[in-house]
Write a structure and sequence with these properties.
5-stranded mixed sheet, 4 helices, alpha+beta
Length: about 140
């Protein structure tokens, strides 16, 4: 059992999706998306580079193992009885499917984005001060 979720950009069976076995709660997913946005990565709906960067960020955060997968939506565990499917656009959650439980908002966004940053290679890190500066003004709630 995990804390599963799928992140995708659409509702079609052939849409690409990223499967998270851990950290699939809304607070974590919003943190991963916000980190990608702060880095200036192209969104996944734009092209495959957005998917690659999202996978890189999540993979760096988790480390090795079987915590992340990529496939077309029809081959992913969308109705997973944990967090279901997040539909995203421009690094924001715009829809949700197959969600049956209580929302998980365990991590303050600012703290989680800093934690994600700490798991990135040193030369890729944003830095705590810059993250605080970029998130100040109400975006960190």
């Amino acid at each position: 059992m995990g804390n599963r979720a799928v992140i995708t950009t659409g509702k079609n069976d052939t849409d690409i999706g990223v499967y998270l076995h851990w950290n699939g709660g809304r607070a974590s997913v919003e943190g991963f998306l916000k980190y990608c946005e702060l880095k200036g990565y192209r969104p996944p709906e734009t092209d495959n580079y957005g998917w690659a960067r999202l996978c890189q960020v999540v993979g760096n955060y988790f480390g090795g193992g079987l915590s992340i997968g990529v496939d077309i939506r029809s081959r992913l565990d969308c109705d997973n009885w944990d967090n279901g499917v997040y539909i995203i656009r421009n690094w924001k959650i715009v829809g949700r499917e197959f969600f049956h439980g209580a929302e998980q908002m365990d991590y303050p966004l600012l703290d989680f984005v800093k934690d994600i940053d700490a798991h990135m290679p040193k030369n890729e890190q944003i830095g705590d001060e810059k993250i605080e500066s970029l998130l100040k003004g109400g975006d960190s709630e």
